[in-house]
Design a protein that fits this description.
The structure holds 2 protein chains of 2 kinds.
Chain A: H1 10-19, H2 22-50, H3 53-59, E1 66-70, E2 80-84, H4 93-113, E3 125-129, E4 138-140, E5 145-147, H5 162-176, H6 184-206, E6 216-217, E7 232-233, E8 242-243, E9 247-248, H7 264-267, H8 273-286, H9 294-302, H10 313-328, H11 330-342
Parallel strand pairs in A: 1-3, 3-5
Antiparallel strand pairs in A: 1-2, 4-5, 6-7, 8-9
Chain B: E1 2-9, E2 21-24, H1 30-45, E3 59-67, E4 70-77, H2 83-96
Antiparallel strand pairs in B: 1-2, 1-3, 3-4
Helix pairs in contact in B: 1-2
The chains are: A alpha/beta, B alpha+beta.
Chain lengths: 348, 97
């Protein structure tokens, strides 16, 4: 392999990125992003030629690698590189929130479940901000996160809520593990898992126990014009908002109120209220930090090879009961079964 | 020509906003009408390719164009790859609110 050497060292590029004018900063950041890849490729080949990789592959420490892009109000992805791993915060709040949120989510999965990024193999975390014009949504496109700025009328920017950032990243985790199909009950489980771990990331960042958490998803995304506190409530599905323009939160808290619809891929954002509430009940009953027991049970269920992509609520619930017993014994299993029973799902 | 737009899904799924909304193109301001008609013609000549999979929390836009030839339906999901479709969705949302 022919070695290629870059003339400008990374520390100089970083100083240009921090102190240069806009054009200089753009060029430096773009070069850093490319250089990191090239250096990594070169270093990898050198290690493999020496045989050292055989030791390093088992001992390499997990580390987050974040890149934030500015989509510049267009819909082409990913956009222009504006912040890479280790770079200092700039003046763009959306960029900084995305960077910090990706970091908090990575740190949560690493600390709580020893998971190295979305794919447990150190997958780079990429996010584009300022997507579209007055774009009031956020999504995971299979490779990266995408965040809008909101319309400025009813919605604030979507990077303002840590649980939303973690929600989107968790779709990547679900895609890597259970691959729950995005329709019907499996799709509602997919959404619920993202709400569960979105909330846990927020609780972990705040150092909260289950009883002290707000159990809200997307608090702060509505402007003061909207009569509502959040997008969803895991503690009280159906109460998050009731607004003349946006309508009322239609999430059910019990299977008797399951919404049968063809809209929203079979109501994945609506019926997720049922498994959300089951998790909330289990977390409160198990006590302590919600990620330690309830979260662990749900995480191991997500990774459980018996969990099918087309799982129903009942099938998922049964696996949570089995995993609860396996991890924490019969008392925990009873708590989980009772939590599902309270929302009308049989977990035995 | 009448165009109906339906927006489905999204992280912030609001059933109240998901109902189909229509506009009679003839009632649009002249400059907007010209742009919309040009976009519709472009789509008819080269319809957008449907996406094979749906990204979580991405929205789906269903555009039904109803004229003397009958209704024609286009359905695209975010991110909208087709620039003409994206432009038409933007113009419709600007007008419909």
């Amino acid at each position: 392999m022919i070695a290629r050497c870059s003339i400008i060292p990374p520390n100089v590029l970083s100083r240009i990125a921090a102190n240069g004018n806009a054009a200089q900063r753009d060029a430096a950041l773009s070069t850093l992003a490319t250089d990191q890849t090239m250096r990594l490729v070169r270093a990898t080949y050198q290690l493999m030629e020496s045989g050292a990789h055989k030791v390093l592959m088992t001992a390499a420490p997990a580390a987050k690698q974040r890149t934030i892009y500015d989509a510049q109000h267009r819909e082409a992805l990913p956009g222009r590189v504006v912040r890479t791993e280790g770079a200092a915060a700039g003046k763009d709040a959306a960029v900084n929130e995305a960077y910090d949120g990706l970091g908090a989510t990575y740190d949560f999965y690493a600390a709580a479940y020893d998971r190295n990024s979305i794919d447990d193999e150190g997958m780079h975390l990429d996010a584009s901000v300022h997507y579209g014009t007055r774009y009031d949504n956020a999504f995971w496109n299979g490779q990266q996160m995408v965040f809008g700025d909101g319309d400025g009328d009813l919605f604030n920017r979507f990077t303002a809520a840590l649980d939303v950032i973690a929600h989107e990243l968790t779709h990547g985790v679900t895609g890597d593990e259970a691959r729950l199909v995005y329709t019907g009950e499996a799709g509602a489980l997919n959404e619920s898992v993202s709400d569960v771990f979105g909330s846990l990331v927020k609780q972990h960042a705040r150092g909260q126990k289950a009883q002290d958490a707000d159990w809200l998803i997307g608090q702060g995304l509505f402007t003061s014009k909207v009569r509502g506190i959040a997008l969803r409530s895991m503690k009280a599905p159906g109460t998050a908002f009731d607004d003349a323009v946006l309508g009322k939160d239609e999430q059910p808290a019990h299977m008797r109120d399951f919404v049968h619809t063809s809209a929203d891929n079979g109501g994945v954002h609506i019926n997720s209220g049922i498994p959300n509430h089951a998790f909330y009940l289990a977390a409160i009953a198990l006590g302590g930090h919600a990620w330690e027991k309830a979260g662990r049970i749900w995480y191991e269920t997500l990774r459980d090879k018996r969990l099918k992509p087309t799982a129903t609520f009942a099938q998922f619930a049964r696996l949570t009961a089995l995993n609860a017993s396996h991890l924490f014994g019969t008392p925990a299993r009873k708590v989980v079964v009772d939590a599902w029973s309270a929302v009308g799902v049989r977990a035995r | 020509m009448r165009i109906t737009l339906t927006i489905d899904g999204g992280l912030v799924y609001l059933p109240a906003r998901a109902a189909p909304r229509s506009v009679d193109v003839d009632t649009l301001p002249a400059n907007v009408r010209v742009e919309v008609c040009a976009l519709v013609d472009a789509l008819r000549q080269s319809p957008p390719r449907p996406r094979s999979s749906h990204a979580p929390d991405a929205r789906t836009y269903t555009i039904v164009i109803d004229d003397r030839n009958g209704p024609t339906t286009y359905r695209v999901s975010e991110p909208i790859d087709d620039a003409r479709c994206a432009a038409l969705v933007d113009k419709l949302r600007d007008h419909l609110g």
